[in-house]
Amino acid sequence: MKRNAQQLMQDRARLMGPSVSTFYEEPVHFVKGDGVWLWDADGRRYLDCYNNVPHVGHCNPRVVDAIFRQASTLNTHTRYLHDGILDYIEALTATMDPSLNTAILTCTGSEANDIALRMAEAVTGKRGIVVTDATYHGNTSLVSQLSQSNTPAVGFGLHQYVRCVQAPDSYRHPDPDGTGFAAHVEEQIQSLQSDGTGFAALLVCPYFLNEGFPDNPDGWLKPAAEVVSKAGGLLICDEVQSGFGRTGTHFWAHQKMGVVPDVITMGKPMANGHPVGGVVARDDIVKVFRTGYRYFNTFGGNPVSCAAAMAVLDELHERQLISNAKNTGDYARKRLDALAEQFDFIGDVRGSGLIFGAEMVTDNHTKAPATTFTNRVINELRQRGIILSALGRHRNTLKIRPPMPFSIENAGLLFDTLTEVLSTLNPADNSSGG
How far apart (Å, rounded) are the C-alpha atoms in residues 246 and 52? Predict the structure, then answer.
């Protein structure tokens, strides 16, 4: 059945329930993808500057072929033996510190973070969790309680085990060596210990993407990691958005931030859209978890998922996509810096590799966030065939996070279009900032 846009929205509400979110004031109906491009139902082409799920490009031929070949042969679960999961875990952990040598595969990043927190409880015997106050780590009953912006109205009351620290903000509250953040983490650890909850883990995205990817220098997370270790907790790095070469300088963002986590979680980009997530940890941690929990996941680590995930690793290496991320990201920063000189409502420019953006403000002196204006920019870009979004505490930072084959030529089109949009919009029309 073919539906027009209005019918699609009406049937979504009828069949999927109310308040199912969509992007943009005028939602897009995509029907095809190829590389860094998407096409809507009317045949219009859009440059994808947002989606990290198709990490090596929409409908990547290597991944599609791997899925087809394995699905044509066998697909079952891990209670039967198969080589694919072992080959993949060996290849995946080879990109990490040698201590991170054991993995559990899941279907989503939410599941991975849920398992990681259960690992922390199993190892420490404690339940206290420290996160930032502007984060998101998934939607299970446990991890949904970690987000202040996405916390469900009705839940299981698990917030009693959670303490929040202020998310790093290199623009408004510089903390160049990470000691300020570490001190705040230590305060919340002491709070958990004082009230008898105890401290189990610090869970962070090492590049703090949802928080607006502040410009923290390499090695910035070391002081916080030392505080966590001293307190007997686990450092869990959520690499769902920041991993697999996204920063252009390292395979994993925790490597860029100078730490070796106890546990790493991952998801979305692992298999280019095929639902794969994972937890990697030291073997002693996984052993304790396996002993304490009788965990099994029917689809986690199935042969088709592993074939797709392996194809992503092969594509990253053989096409040198991490180097591409570095080169394109360097070009993007130069273009953003030039825009910041041209438009005084661009308060800050930041990013690394293929995660970059600019924070919009109504006043460069007060740094008041231009949330409404940022939303207008995003919707105007959508009308001109450019797909991106916003994030950060005030949702006033352009979130540009394209597939890894995104080229300098693609970035040129993005910034030429962005320049046109910024030249036509006036942030003073929304001086309240939204």
Answer: 9
Task: Estimate the crossing angle of helix 222-230 against helix 179-194, to 10 degrees.
Answer: 20
Question: For residues 394 and 402, what is the distance between their CA atoms, to the nearest angstrom?
Answer: 22
Q: Which residue type sits at 370? A: A
Express each pLDDT in 157-188 by its tens digit. Answer: 677 899 999 999 999 999 999 999 999 999 99
pLDDT at position 355 over 50? yes
Name the nearest CA neighbour of 30 among 70, 58, 11, 57. 58
Q: How far apart are CA 299 and CA 105, in angstroms?
A: 9
User: Is the pLDDT confidence value at 149 over 70?
Assistant: no
For residues 267 and 113, give the distance between their C-alpha atoms in angstroms, rounded to a whole number: 10
In 3D space, the residue among 411, 393, 412, 397 whose CA is nearest the CA of residue 350 turns out to be 397
Domain architecture of the chain: domains with CATH = 16-48+321-430 (3.90.1150.10), 61-318 (3.40.640.10)
Q: b/e for 50-79, b at 16 or more Cβ within 10 A?
A: bbbbbbbbbebebbeebbeebeeeeeeebe
152 band by pLDDT with thresholds 50, 70 and 90: low
Q: 49-63, pLDDT tens digit by residue?
A: 999 999 999 999 999
Q: Which amino acid appears at position 128 of this protein? A: G
* pLDDT greater than 90 at residue 311: yes
- Calpha distance 240→95 (Å, rounded): 15
* Closest CA relative to residue 381, chosen from 338, 420, 339, 337: 420
CA-wise closest residue to 209 among 378, 22, 21, 389: 389
How does DSSP assign 74-133, residue by residue?
----TTS--HHHHHHHHHHHTTS-TT--EEEEESSHHHHHHHHHHHHHHHHS--EEEEET
Residue 144's pLDDT is what? 81
**Cβ-proximal residues to 261 (8 Å cutoff; 6+ apart), any chain:** 100, 206, 225, 234, 235, 236, 237, 254
* DSSP conformation class of 433: -
Angle between helix axes 109-124 and 283-292 (nearest 10 degrees) is 90
User: How crowded is residue 197: how many other Cβ atoms within 10 Å of its Cβ?
Assistant: 17
| All residues at 6 or more sequence positions from 64 whose CB lies less than 8 Å from its CB, including other chains | none
Helix (H) or strand (E) holding 315: helix 303-318
Q: Name 33's bridge partners.
A: 38
